[in-house]
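**Reference record**
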Amino acid sequence: MNILHTSDWHIGCSLYGRKRYEEHEAFLNWLLATLSKEKVDVLLVSGDIFDSALPSNRALALYYQFLHRISATCCKNVIIIGGNHDSPSLLSAPRDLLKHLNIHVIANVGDSPEDEIISITDESGILRLLVCAVPYLRDREIRFSQAAESIEEKGKKLIDGISSHYQEVYQHAEGLRAGAEIPLVVMGHLFVAGASSDDRSGERELYVGSLAHVPAEMFPSEIDYLALGHLHRAQAVGTINAFRYSGSPLPMSFSRADDSHSVCLLNFSGRTLSQELIAVPSFRSFISIKGEVDEILNQIASLISHHTEAWLEIVYTGEQIIGTLQQQMRDATVKTGLEVIRVINNRVVQQSLHQSNVQETLDELAPEEVFKRCLERHKIPLEQRPQLTTLFNEALQHIYDDDQMAE
C-alpha cells in the first residue's frame, strides 16, 4: 500500500502582501500528477489546508477543484485533518458529501474516539490500514482552566489533555486492529519535542507561551507511522524516522527559500515501512540581494540580462541614508520579470531601534511584536511586562481558536 503524507499547504497565504495563488495551483497540479505517477492509494493531509479561518473564494476554489480532480486518479482515499489555521466548521461543512467520495475530513474533536478513526479496506472489503486522524486540539477542548493557574500548571494540563486524547483514540484503533499485521498510522497537528522550530518559517504558536511541546514518548511504540503537521521544515522527530513532519510545500519566507521542500511517500508491506522523500519543485524564484546601492543595482542588472523571473528582497547595508531607496529599486525592475516585494534599509533600522521602522507594515509584524513595541513605546515598567504579555497571548489565543465560521 502506497501512502503520501503532506501538510501545511496554507492556501491563500501572502508574502509581504503578495498573494501566492499561482504557486498553490502549480503545487496542487504537481501533487495530482505525483499521486498518479507513484500509484498512491491514500493521501494524508496533516492540517493547515488554508492560511486563514476565512479563506477567500479563490482559495476555496483551488481546494475543492483539487478534491474533485483527485477522484480521477488512482488515489481512492483522502484523509484531511484540521490545523490551527483552519476553521473547523468550514472544513466540516461538506464532510458528509465528501465522505461518499472517500474523502474523510476530521476538523475537530469528535463525540467519541471512533469519529477520528478511518478504516481503509481493499476491493474485497478486507481491512488494510487504520488511521487515527487527530486534528489540532484546541485548548478549550482538552483542558479545564482554573483561576490563578500558573503557566507551568496550564502547560502540564495541556500535555495531559493531549496525551489522554491520543491514548483514547489509539486504544480504540488498537482494538480494531486486534493483533493483525495491519499498519496503524496516527495523524496530528502539534509540536512534538525533538523536532526543531524556526521563527523565520512563519509558524504560529499553537498554545500560549510555547506550551505543550509534547514528548515523543507520549505516542505508543506500536504505531507504525506518525504523520505530523505544523512545523514548516520537513524533518523527522529526533532520531525516530517513523515520526515525521512533511513540512510546507512552499517556502514561507525568503530565509527559507533555499530549503528543500518535500512530500513523504510511504510503502507498507504488512507493517514493514519504507519511506521516500519526493522533492517538491520550486514554483517561483525568491532572491535576496544585499549591499550598497550600486552593488544592488548591478546584481539586478545581471538578473535582468539573464531574463530571470523572481520576487526580490532588497537589503541595503550602506551607511548613507537614502529616502528614495524603495523607488530606485522599483524603477530598476519595471517591465522586467523581477518584482521587488520587500526593501530593508538597515541604515534606517539602526537609526530607529526604539521607533517603528518606516519600511515596515503590519503585514510584516507578528501581533506579539506589535504588542512588545507598544510596551516599549509606552515605557511600561520591566517587571510588569511578563504578566501583561501572558494576558495578551491568552487573548490572542482565544481569537485564533475562535471558529469564526461557526454559528
